Amino acid sequence: MFRSLSPHYFSIEDIFATQERLPCKFVVPVHRLGFLDPSSESEDIAVGTSIELPFWLAQTLCSQRRNIVTVEIPKIYKEAYREILKADACVVDLHKFGLFFYEFGTYLSRLEHRDSAVIGSVLVQTFKERFRQVMDWAHNSGTDPAIIQRLDSLEKALFREGHQTRAQLDAWLNAGTGLITAAEMVVNHKKRKLAVLDDF
């Protein structure tokens, strides 16, 4: 499985994240695309029409070069929710915020939008605050489903990796190690140094 926080053709997470929908308002008329608005019987899209579009399409239409729509940030990335994360990110059930909270948020932080930079910094701060807790859960709580359900897809992957790594470490420690000996290269190096000292 490919995991990427930047566009990757083979990443399932990337495909799902860019399918997330954004509320968009058309600022220019668009001909023959009225079918995009299920509530309209018109063949065209009029100025001021609001439609939810997948991110990959909205991103293209709201660029400075095209400027066909204006994009509204989803509520889970707006100021009220950002303040909740800033207050204490560790108590938040990120799964309820979105399955691809970090991945989709990373895309939003690259949009040409006034909140993009703030979203990026909140994502980084949230991840830093929650990372230690996720690793603590992975090492000490087993595979409690209630804990896993509080995580988004990125954190779930980290949890699984941390839990598996801890299990491997425990298995290695329980198996014990044999006699630890110096590598042959180290032994030969010491012999050469002793030989040089004997010449003096």
Give an account of the 3D structure:
This protein is mainly alpha-helical. The chain has helices at 12-18, 55-61, 79-88, 94-97, 101-108, 116-140, 145-148, 153-175, 184-199, and strands at 21-26, 50-54, 69-71. A three-stranded antiparallel sheet has the order 2-1-3. The mean pLDDT is 86. Component of the GINS complex. InterPro entries: GINS_A (IPR021151), GINS_bundle-like_dom_sf (IPR036224), GINS_Psf3 (IPR010492), GINS_Psf3_sf (IPR038437), PSF3_N (IPR055221). Residues 77-173 form the GINS subunit domain.
Concise synopsis of the structure shown:
With 200 residues, the protein is mainly alpha-helical. It is built from nine helices and three strands.
User: What's the average pLDDT?
Assistant: 86
Biggest sheet: strands side by side, in what order?
A: 2-1-3
Strand percentage lies at 5-15%
* End-to-end distance: 61 Å
Which term fits the overall shape?
A: elongated
Instruction: Give helix and strand order, one letter per element, not per position.
Output: HEEHEHHHHHHH
Describe the SSE topology.
Layout: H1 12-18, E1 21-26, E2 50-54, H2 55-61, E3 69-71, H3 79-88, H4 94-97, H5 101-108, H6 116-140, H7 145-148, H8 153-175, H9 184-199
Antiparallel strand pairs: 1-2, 1-3
